[in-house]
């Protein structure tokens, strides 16, 4: 049975409109980048040019994206809620966790890989509300050391020692 | 016969390989049982560990982990109503109610038996179909490969997930990521932004780890207080004669269905499990009991999801086209170890294919044992505090991304992919389609460029080949069916109603 205008709601889904605009902006920027690719020498000019395929894909993405703000209508007709996964606002913790990870990766050239791993194992549990130090301290020390030993000594992976020069 | 014996002996006669497979099965069942951790994530994290291994044990480990991870999800689906992995979602519908009424051991036994049967049957199909399909694929030229890869990408429209449109956009972004680096036919750098490390393209491993591990970590950071109610399972019982009589047809049907869905490019265990459940219900005489702890409701999805693992290996190895998200990762591992998956792999190193078959077969029997003996233990993994588990995942992710090239840029790529993955998932853009696009992207472009050289840039000449036409027809159907299917069904239903009225 067709939906009434009240059941259908607005034609454009606001959140999806924003999502679509962001994707389209990315496409425009990347399309511009493809126009700055180096010129191909005459010898190779009969081949498909290097920008052709990325441009084709970007155009396809842009065309598909045009449907995103209207997709909720199709879902409503099927009885689905397109917003079920994102009905709650993103809590503070993912932002804080992402910021911590970015800070730690920024710190790797200075701290080195081993200290950064110890940092993750010490700070992340505390950040996530773990208060049992008896659990955190041995975990933060022993687990990164064991992993570093495995990769460094057994699998022979070189570890960035950082400016402090701390490595296994 | 010689390659069969050689391949199987590579696995069976080497205690080291058996040990590695056993370890992978244990990890796989544990990861599968833990809500939030998934087989693709575990395979992505395992990739760096296998760098120094020989190809056979490396791929055997991943194949074993893939099978065991798919099964592991059923344990927590039955005992705590929290499917450890997406393919076990349908198992919880009847598994948990059965466990709740005091028959947890019976539910686990049915799940284990059905999983193993589905897995073994699909492996038989795999070992027969892969060489046959490879023999056909040997006749493929670049135009046919291009059409096949485009068809595989179009299948992303029907992969599990909420939106066909968003899956296609995800897949297209994956293809775009695949274009980073030097263009093969002209040598021009694309999207490298001045980073010499990107001239060889974006490394797969950091992207995969970021998408599956860091993205999920950010997601899990929102659910730190989640609490599961656990049902006690004293002992797992294999199905008795009455149960077997009830489920054998469902197991066989779902095994066939699961294998077929697995063989289809891009369709994985989750789709197979949902279809396995629906078909079990459709054919059952006890339809009303579904959802209340019906044995067929457990057997159907479990046989189908595990059968899809063997099926998915067929296109992965015979054509180089991933059958699912997890096999896409196995494909990456093959490439990392210097193989080019596809018909030549099957034709030139058949013993390798038989070794993978052997590893998956052993894995199935190993998790039969684990399912019967250790299900109770594995349900306890949910007791590991999340505040400890996820930092451990971060450590493995950082090392995993860094280890393959000892380059800090890869850790940044992992982090960016993780944040992007978190945002994408929230807005309904699938991660598996992005991975498939990333892997298929270079194949599509390479085959397209070669085809255009063959046909002197005349695109329409591609359609001279009936195989190309066939694949494009299938592409058209798979692209438009998710949108046109409901309309067609509605029209048919209306006509049926009209005919009845008249």
Our measurement of the CA-to-CA distance between the termini of chain B, rounded to an integer number of angstroms, reads 64 Å
As a whole number of angstroms, the C-alpha radius of gyration of chain B is 22 Å
Silhouette of chain B: globular
Total count of helical runs of at least 4 residues of chain A:
7
Report on the biggest sheet of chain B.
2 strands, antiparallel
**What is the percent of helical residues of chain A?**
55-70%
Ranges of chain B with pLDDT <50 over ≥5 residues?
A: none
Please tell me the total number of domains of chain B.
1
Structural class of chain A: mainly alpha
Structural class of chain B: mainly alpha
Search tags:
heterodimer, A: 168 residues, mainly alpha, 2 domains, 62% helix, 0% strand, flat, B: 502 residues, two-stranded antiparallel sheet, 72% helix, globular
Tell me about this structure:
The complex is a heterodimer of chains A (168) and B (502). By secondary structure, chain A is mostly helical. Chain A folds into two domains: 5-78; 92-154, no CATH class. Chain A is 62% helix and 0% strand. Chain A starts with a helix and ends in a 14-residue tail after the last helix. Chain B has one domain. In chain B, 72% of the residues lie in helices and 1% in strands. The longest helix of chain B has 49 residues, at 89-137. Chain B starts with a helix and ends with a helix. Chains A and B meet through helix 2, helix 3, helix 4, helix 5 and helix 6 of A and helix 7, strand 2, helix 8, helix 16 and helix 17 of B.
């Amino acid at each position: 049975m067709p939906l009434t205008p009240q059941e259908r709601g607005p034609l454009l889904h606001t959140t999806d409109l924003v999502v679509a605009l962001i994707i389209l902006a990315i496409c425009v920027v990347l399309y511009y980048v493809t126009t700055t690719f180096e010129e191909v020498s005459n010898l190779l000019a009969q081949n498909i040019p290097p920008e052709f395929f990325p441009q084709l894909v970007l155009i396809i993405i842009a065309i598909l994206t045009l449907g995103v703000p209207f997709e909720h209508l199709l879902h409503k007709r099927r009885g689905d809620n397109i917003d079920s996964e994102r009905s709650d606002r993103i809590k503070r913790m993912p932002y804080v966790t992402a910021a911590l990870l970015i800070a730690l990766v920024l710190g790797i050239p200075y701290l080195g890989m081993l200290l950064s791993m110890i940092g993750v194992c010490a700070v992340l549990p505390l950040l996530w509300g773990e208060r049992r130090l008896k659990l955190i301290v041995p975990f933060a020390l022993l687990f990164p050391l064991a992993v570093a030993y495995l990769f460094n000594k057994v699998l022979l992976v070189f570890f960035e020692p950082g400016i402090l020069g701390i490595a296994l | 016969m010689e390659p069969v014996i050689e391949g199987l002996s590579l696995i069976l006669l080497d205690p080291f390989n058996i040990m590695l497979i056993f370890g992978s099965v244990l990890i796989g069942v544990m990861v599968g049982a833990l809500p939030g951790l998934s087989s693709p994530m575990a395979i992505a994290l395992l990739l760096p560990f296998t760098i120094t291994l020989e190809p056979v044990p490396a791929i055997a480990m991943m194949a074993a982990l893939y099978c065991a991870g798919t099964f592991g999800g059923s344990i927590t689906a039955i005992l705590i109503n929290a499917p450890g992995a997406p393919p076990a979602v349908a198992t919880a519908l009847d598994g948990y109610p059965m466990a709740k009424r005091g028959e947890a051991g019976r539910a686990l036994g049915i799940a284990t038996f059905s999983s193993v049967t589905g897995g073994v049957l699909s492996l038989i199909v795999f070992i027969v179909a892969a060489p046959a399909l490879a023999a056909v694929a040997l006749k493929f030229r670049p135009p046919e490969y291009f059409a096949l890869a485009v068809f595989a990408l179009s299948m992303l429209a029907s992969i599990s997930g909420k939106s066909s449109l968003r899956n296609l956009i995800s897949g297209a972004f994956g293809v775009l990521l695949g274009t980073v680096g030097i263009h093969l036919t002209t040598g021009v750098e694309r999207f490298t932004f001045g980073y010499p490390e990107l001239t060889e393209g974006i490394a797969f491993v950091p992207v995969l780890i970021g998408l599956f591990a860091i993205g999920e970590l950010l997601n899990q950071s929102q659910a730190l207080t989640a609490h599961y109610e656990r049902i006690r399972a004293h002992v797992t019982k294999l199905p008795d004669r009455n149960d077997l009589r009830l489920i054998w047809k469902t197991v066989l049907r779902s095994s066939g269905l699961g294998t077929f869905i697995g063989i289809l490019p891009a369709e994985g265990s989750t789709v197979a499990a949902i279809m396995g459940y629906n078909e079990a219900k459709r054919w059952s005489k006890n339809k009303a009991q579904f959802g209340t702890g019906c044995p067929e409701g457990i057997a159907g999805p479990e046989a189908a999801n595990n059968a899809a693992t063997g099926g998915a290996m067929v296109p992965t190895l015979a054509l180089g086209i991933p059958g699912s998200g997890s096999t896409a990762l196995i494909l990456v591992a093959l490439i990392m170890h210097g193989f080019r998956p596809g018909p030549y792999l099957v034709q030139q190193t058949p013993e390798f294919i038989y070794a993978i078959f052997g590893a998956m077969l052993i894995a199935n029997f190993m998790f039969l044992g684990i399912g019967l003996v250790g299900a109770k233990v594995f349900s306890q993994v949910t007791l590991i505090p999340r505040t400890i588990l996820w930092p451990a995942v971060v450590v493995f992710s950082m090392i995993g991304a860094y280890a393959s090239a000892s380059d800090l840029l890869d850790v940044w790529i992992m982090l960016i992919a993780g944040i992007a993955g978190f945002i994408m998932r929230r807005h309904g853009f699938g991660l598996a389609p992005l991975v498939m696009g990333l892997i298929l992207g270079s194949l599509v472009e390479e085959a397209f460029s070669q085809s255009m050289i063959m046909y002197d840039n005349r695109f329409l000449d591609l359609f001279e080949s009936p195989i190309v036409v066939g694949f494009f027809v299938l592409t058209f159907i798979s692209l438009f069916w998710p949108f046109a299917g409901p309309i067609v069904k509605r029209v048919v239903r209306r006509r049926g109603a009209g005919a009845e009225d008249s």
